[in-house]
Amino acid sequence: MFLSRSDRDKLLELLFQRAFRYSEVPTFKLTSGKMSSFYIDCKKVSLDPEGAFLIGEQIFDRIKSLPVEGVGGMTLGADPIATAVSLISFLKNKPIPAFIVRKEPKGHGSGQQVEGALQPNGKLVVVEDVVTTGGSTVRTIEALRKEGYSVLKVIALIDRKEGGAERIAAEGIGFEALYTIDDFMRLVRFQKK
């Protein structure tokens, strides 16, 4: 365990130790079917009490000045992140409701794809755990736009730097990641010394 200088460093440390897996040989199969030398399972941190707190604080700090009326994303990776941010927003006296986007509209009841106590045509921030190509993020944006919402910004915990940022920007939406794969690879190199 290396010494943390800030909450940002503590969160990176948790993600590196608990969520990040690396192999010299590409052994991890991604959603796209592509093989990779690294895999990041952010739920190992976003569902942890300390991790959730640090994630909520970091993301809330980046959106608190926006006219945001909801924070969330595609289930399942975004769910604990959105909840953490919403809880921190309440503690900071600027409550922002969380929302969940289902992969498909609900097959019963109201048939909703977007769940949460959102205002009609609200301004939202989309959160992601890991962005690779940006495909799931764009599907999330499309589902929200179809329901009349506008997306102010997308914030990811980690950008794998495989085209996702550019794809999101092509939708006319700002993108920010707390960390990139470069942050993790620096730690891999540090460990090898």
From TrEMBL:
Binding residue positions for 5-phospho-alpha-D-ribose 1-diphosphate: R102, K103, K106, H108, E128, D129, V130, V131, T132, T133, G134, G135, S136
Cofactor(s) for this UniProt protein: Mg(2+)
Domain of life: Bacteria
GO MF annotations in UniProt: magnesium ion binding; orotate phosphoribosyltransferase activity
Binding of orotate, residues: T132, R160
Main function: Catalyzes the transfer of a ribosyl phosphate group from 5-phosphoribose 1-diphosphate to orotate, leading to the formation of orotidine monophosphate (OMP).
Stated name of the protein: Orotate phosphoribosyltransferase
